[in-house]
Design brief:
This protein is α+β, with helices and mostly antiparallel strands and about 425 residues long. The chain is globular and about 65 Å long. Strand 6 and strand 7 form a beta hairpin. It folds into 2 domains: about 210 residues, FAD/NAD(P)-binding domain (3-Layer(bba) Sandwich), CATH 3.50.50; about 120 residues, D-Amino Acid Oxidase, Chain A, domain 2 (2-Layer Sandwich), CATH 3.30.9. The longest helix has 26 residues. About 30% of the residues lie in helices and about 20% in strands.
Length: about 425
């Protein structure tokens, strides 16, 4: 595909004519919502009254920055609007697979060894983020070529050169005859937007502003996550011998799934995360609150610590981590295993108005056992290719190509989380 060059001008296309249309059948949208209509991206046009306008991306998470960087590498300017501050915010590890990071390496023009040394959770002490699939409890995408990357360092690497408006999170968007208006936090607004990509996560306000009926399903699992810093001495004496070179280790105990993973290692200390998860026990389960508010994620019931105290016969590093008194000093969150998948006709509907969704905004998986980060990166890379194609690929074609992969990944993630909690879980394949 040939990348476009030059500045990005306001998109003049069939989207304007479709601005107020409400009959969005796939057959009608297919020829109309095309990237051929977006062929003005990266091309100069002498159109009176039209000012240059970068493509707007809502959200500067992994999907958003990957899309932004991939477009920037093709000479297409973008602006990202992010709710958070520029301070580090994702100090934990994620599993990256070769099918994800090898295309990313091509975009970054970086070899694999350098890449791993830059983002691996244990890079500071000479590691490469190794994962031993034999240390996991059930089969999933993780293989011997997968590795644990520090998410914040990965995002920082990808977002180099990008124009990111921090503390400019979307509050809502509103469609007008002149385009879409973005209403941002701090009471700022941007008018006349004709091409917007929502990459603002599972609770996407881009999606909610238009598809208010789109909801989230909560899987019936109780899951708690904690984060702890330990001295290097403790890590070397207690954790390292048990991890045996793997940055993730899992086990079962008393009906619960337990996981310990490395977030970061320095010369002085290590950051580790833990997961405690089990099937919910119905409406009487004091630890299962599927309808809780987002702000209640830090409200941890005493019943959870009672369950931890009942764990018996734990080996290291689980016995050191799953100590109720120590856990009360950790940063602990209760996770809900939320999933969603916006219907294809709804994606076409948004596209007809120049609004596109990707990553968790379009398809979210359960945090535990899911592959959200990998799919978000792939979404960003492939969407950038479609946008930059000089002849253009229809947005419906891009969605049609990606949608089966989203559905399959969602199905796989649900099966994986069920397998992870089986008493006799199958061992992972190497």
């Amino acid at each position: 595909m040939q990348a476009c060059t030059g500045g990005l001008h306001k998109i003049i296309s069939g989207f304007d004519a479709l601005q107020h249309q409400r009959d969005f059948s796939a057959s009608r949208l297919w020829p109309m919502t095309s990237f051929a209509n977006l062929s003005t991206i990266g091309q100069s046009h002498n159109i009176p009254g039209m000012s240059p306008q970068p493509l707007s991306i809502i959200g500067a998470g992994l999907g958003g920055v990957t899309l932004g960087r991939a477009l920037l590498e093709r000479g297409i300017p973008v602006v990202l609007y992010e709710r958070a501050t520029s301070a580090p915010r994702h100090g934990y590890g994620i599993s990256l697979h070769a099918s994800t990071y090898k295309p990313l390496l091509k975009m970054l023009n970086m070899d694999e060894s350098t890449f791993r040394k830059s983002v691996a959770v244990d890079a500071a002490v000479g590691g490469n983020g190794a994962i031993d699939p034999k240390r996991l409890v059930c089969p999933r995408e993780v293989t011997s070529t997968s590795f644990r990357a520090h998410r914040e360092r990965l995002e920082k690497l990808i977002r180099q050169g990008l124009d990111i408006k921090w503390e400019h999170g979307l509050e809502k968007l509103e469609q007008t005859p002149n385009g879409t208006t973005l209403y941002l936090q701090n009471e700022s607004s941007i008018e006349g937007q004709t091409c917007i990509v929502g990459a603002d996560g599972v609770h996407s306000l881009t999606r909610k502003s238009i598809l208010r009926e789109a909801g989230l399903d909560v899987l019936p699992f109780v899951t708690f996550n904690g984060k702890r810093k330990v001295s290097r001495t403790t890590f070397d004496d207690v954790y390292a011998p048990a991890l045996r070179g793997s940055n993730v280790i899992e086990t079962h105990n008393n009906g619960a799934f337990l996981q310990v993973s490395v977030n970061d290692i320095t010369t002085d200390q290590a950051s580790v995360s833990w997961v405690y998860s089990r099937p919910a026990k119905g409406s009487s389960d004091r630890c299962f609150k599927p309808n809780r508010l987002l702000s209640d994620a830090t409200k941890i019931p005493n019943e959870f610590y009672q369950e931890v105290t009942a764990l018996e016969g734990l080996s290291q590093p689980f016995s050191e981590i799953f100590d109720a008194d120590k856990m009360k000093e950790d940063r602990v969150l209760t996770w809900l295993m939320r999933t969603s998948n916006v219907d294809l006709p709804q994606l076409y509907q948004l596209a007809s108005n120049g609004i596109f969704l990707m990553g968790d905004s379009a398809h979210s998986q359960a945090i535990l056992g899911g592959e959200g980060a990998n799919i978000a990166i792939s979404d960003g890379l492939t969407l950038a290719e479609a946008i930059a194609a000089k002849q253009g690929e229809t947005i419906t074609n891009w969605y049609s190509k990606r949608f089966p992969a989203w559905e399959e990944s969602l199905k796989t993630s649900k099966a994986t989380i069920e397998d992870m909690h089986k008493k006799e879980a199958l061992k992972a394949k190497v």
